[in-house]
Design goal:
Layout: E1 2-7, H1 12-22, E2 28-34, E3 44-45, H2 48-52, E4 57-60, H3 66-76, E5 80-83, H4 90-103, E6 106-109, H5 115-128, E7 133-140, H6 150-163, E8 168-173, E9 179-187, E10 190-198, H7 205-214, E11 220-223, H8 226-229
Parallel strand pairs: 1-2, 1-4, 2-3, 4-5, 5-6, 6-11, 7-8
Antiparallel strand pairs: 7-9, 9-10
Helix pairs in contact: 3-4, 5-6
């Protein structure tokens, strides 16, 4: 049984994760949530250290910069972090990787928990071998704080890995959107469009659960859901 604590427990994704874990059957058990304000009747505490003492994995759905301190504390206590927050700087990633290595455990930084979005990144990297001219349009709800999104930045990095140049990213923030991304590849007389849409936050649950299970078997810091897709 994997005991899972949820940070950012009162946020929109936190609500989805807690409900999914509470009804999960099999290998996952909800160990409780963490928020700035405790809600005892919902098993949410404001004492992170106490919560981590009874967890195997921390599902960190808080926002940066708070997520950095939260996940670093988890790693320091030997609890494997699965981080949904975006916007981490390179030095913050390096510090977390060093702590994970010191404790001999794994952690995952996952900009997007959607299996479909992970597959889009993989397909985009493959397409860039043949159509190196690309641009990305990422569209999210009006409340999303970061732009470009972590998903689009990771997609761009994977395209640049084979195309030799970073594609331009165009960000859209509008009410009614959830999480959407298009990658356009232009060639002589043709256009290839890869698109992924998440219409509800429940679409992130299968990938979230897969990451929680996968983090128990990885070492060091893994970025993205590729470790899950390889299983």
């Amino acid at each position: 049984m994997i005991r899972v604590a949820v940070a950012g427990a009162l946020g929109k994704m936190g609500h989805v994760a807690r409900a999914a874990l509470a009804s999960a059957q099999g290998a996952l058990e909800y160990a409780g949530g963490y928020a700035r304000v405790a809600v005892p009747y919902e098993r949410i505490t404001d004492d992170l250290g106490e919560l981590l003492s009874r967890a195997d994995v921390l599902l960190d759905l808080s926002t940066r910069p708070g997520s950095v301190d939260i996940s670093m504390q988890a790693a320091a206590q030997g609890v494997r972090p699965v981080i949904g927050a975006t916007g981490w700087a390179d030095d913050e990633r390096a510090a977390l990787a060093a702590t994970l290595a010191e404790r001999g455990i794994g952690g995952m930084l996952v900009p997007n928990f959607s299996i479909g979005a992970a597959l889009l990144m993989r397909l985009a990297e493959e397409a860039a071998k043949y159509l190196p001219s690309a641009e990305i349009v990422e569209m999210h709800h009006a409340g999303k704080k970061d732009a470009p999104s972590g998903t689009s930045l990771l997609t761009a990095e994977r395209i640049a890995r084979v195309a030799g140049k970073m594609p331009a990213i165009h960000s859209v923030r509008l009410p009614g959107l959830v999480a959407h991304q298009e990658v356009l590849f232009g060639g002589s007389g043709e256009l290839l469009t890869l698109r992924h849409d998440s219409f509800s936050r429940e679409s992130f649950v299968p990938g979230m659960f897969a990451a929680i299970k996968a983090v128990m078997h990885v070492r060091g810091l893994v970025v993205g859901l590729d470790a899950v897709l390889r299983e």
